[in-house]
Design goal:
Elements: H1 5-15, E1 19-23, H2 27-40, E2 44-48, H3 50-55, H4 58-71, E3 76-83, H5 86-95, E4 99-102, H6 109-126, E5 130-134, H7 156-166, E6 170-173, H8 190-199, E7 204-206, H9 214-222, E8 225-230, H10 232-248, H11 255-277
Parallel strand pairs: 1-2, 1-8, 2-3, 3-4, 4-5, 5-6, 6-7, 7-8
Helix pairs in contact: 2-4, 2-11, 5-6, 7-8, 10-11
Bound molecules: zinc ion (ZN).
Zinc ion binds next to loops.
Length: about 280
């Protein structure tokens, strides 16, 4: 059965590690990510963006996640990543997602507070944890708006007021990371992160982590991050794995055959992140 992210993140917070949240794009991603979690004895969060939800539907992905969770001997949660509206978050909660994010970070502060508080209230009623975002993660998540170079960090004082007023159960912070592929070397503003941690007691979430050096991620976890998101790296790994298989076996026409190459690559990337995040062995 799918579990919520609440216990997962609170355990991570008290144990000073982070749980990996991995964006899944299809059946093969779900199988590969959960296989890595089993192999590493790690709790795991599967998540889908609104773009992925539009590609298939909440129900399709939820059905995949449910089957995976029923078979798994480790805790599995299903999370809506970057929910862009109250309606989509409510649809996900009603469908059976066990965690949602409302991303009002593109709105002015007061509007972000209002929409987040509304979703958090609904989440509380349904027993579903609600992640929110304050400040901005750079780049472009999925087909969402492109934050481009605009990348204001989360203000620690605003973060405290935001969590207090909204009742969100975890908070994604803008501390220098960006979605997509980094052009330069990413740099996590660890000082700002620690200031936020001093003022906010809910688990903190790091987005845009694909390509961030493992050492910076570990330092961020020491600074209060309890959930770390990976999307881009998995997409790259899957595609490269499929292409490598096709290059080596040009006569292949069975999708199961080349998808195995993609799945093996995703599994390897996920397992390696679980080791770095410290969630391996925590199931
Ligand atoms: Zn994100």
């Amino acid at each position: 059965m799918l579990v919520t992210t609440k216990e997962m993140l609170l355990s991570a917070q008290s144990g000073c590690y982070a749980v990996g949240a991995f964006n899944v794009e299809n059946l093969e991603f779900v199988m590969a990510v959960v296989a890595a979690a089993e192999e590493r004895r790690s709790p795991v969060i599967l998540q889908t963006t609104p773009g992925t939800v539009r590609y298939a539907s909440l129900d399709y992905f939820l059905a995949l996640a449910r089957v995976a969770a029923e078979r798994a001997s480790v805790p599995v949660a299903m999370h809506l990543d970057h929910g862009g509206s109250f309606d989509l978050c409510l649809q996900a909660i009603r469908a059976g997602y066990t965690s949602v994010m409302i991303d009002g970070s593109h709105e002015p502060f007061e509007e972000n507070v209002a929409i987040t508080a509304a979703v958090a209230r609904a989440g509380r009623a349904a027993g579903v944890p609600v992640e929110a975002e304050l400040g901005r993660v750079g780049g472009k998540e999925d087909d969402g708006p492109d934050a481009g170079g605009e990348n204001p960090f989360t203000d620690p004082d605003e973060a405290a007021e935001f969590v207090e007023r909204t009742g969100c159960t975890s908070l994604a912070v803008g501390v220098g990371t960006a979605h997509g592929v980094y052009k330069g070397t990413p740099h996590v503003e660890q000082g700002i992160l620690r200031e936020i941690r001093r003022r906010v007691d809910v688990p903190l979430v790091l987005h845009g982590t694909s390509g961030v050096p493992d050492s910076q991620v570990r330092e961020a976890i020491a600074g209060g991050v309890c959930k770390v998101n990976y999307a881009t790296e998995l997409r790259q790994a899957f595609t490269e794995g499929c292409m490598a298989h096709l290059a080596a076996h040009p006569c292949t026409f069975d999708p199961k055959s080349y998808a195995a190459g993609g799945m093996a690559a995703v599994r390897e990337v996920v397992a390696s992140h679980m080791d770095n995040l410290g969630c391996a062995g925590r199931a």
